[in-house]
Write a structure and sequence with these properties.
about 150 residues; about 75% helix; mainly alpha
Length: about 150
């Protein structure tokens, strides 16, 4: 509530106790002739002050309980963020390892192609059709394998 941010909590408790004291005082106003004419308006105002003070005391309690819950959740979020950073580091390490494996296997396939498949570059069949060696299929299949 916006009023809880502007006024300190003791103001609402003071309103409650002033209303309570005014309500009790109205019963003694019967003995004072001049003030007995204001008994009913003072009782109405004191009941309103009691109701307002009670309502605001409940609002203060509710606000404090929500603030405690917010602090609790913020602490949990901080813990989860720390765990998230640790897990992100593990994931990045795994990705780097897999990329290294893929790079190494790719280099091995390139070396194999340079060594074995190049032998057949000069062999052409009659009519301009070239022969596809079995080493080409082996190299192609090895390149398509999932990294270990």
């Amino acid at each position: 509530m916006w009023i809880l941010e502007w006024l300190p909590n003791w103001v609402f408790y003071a309103v409650f106790f002033i209303g309570l004291l005014a309500l009790v005082a109205t019963y003694f106003l019967n003995f004072i002739p001049f003030l007995s004419t204001y008994q009913i308006p003072i009782q109405v105002l004191s009941v309103i002050a009691l109701c307002f003070g009670t309502y605001m005391a409940g609002a203060i309690f509710d606000n404090e309980s929500w603030l405690a819950k917010v602090k609790d959740v913020e602490a949990k979020v901080a813990e989860v963020q720390v765990q998230s950073v640790k897990e992100n580091i593990k994931i990045v390490e795994k990705v780097v390892k897999k990329l290294e494996i893929v790079r190494v296997q790719g280099n091995e396939v390139i070396k194999y192609v340079d060594r074995e498949v190049v032998k057949y570059d000069t062999k052409f069949a009659p009519g301009g059709i070239c022969e596809i060696p079995k080493e080409f299929f082996i190299a192609h299949n090895d390149a398509a394998k999932e990294p270990r």
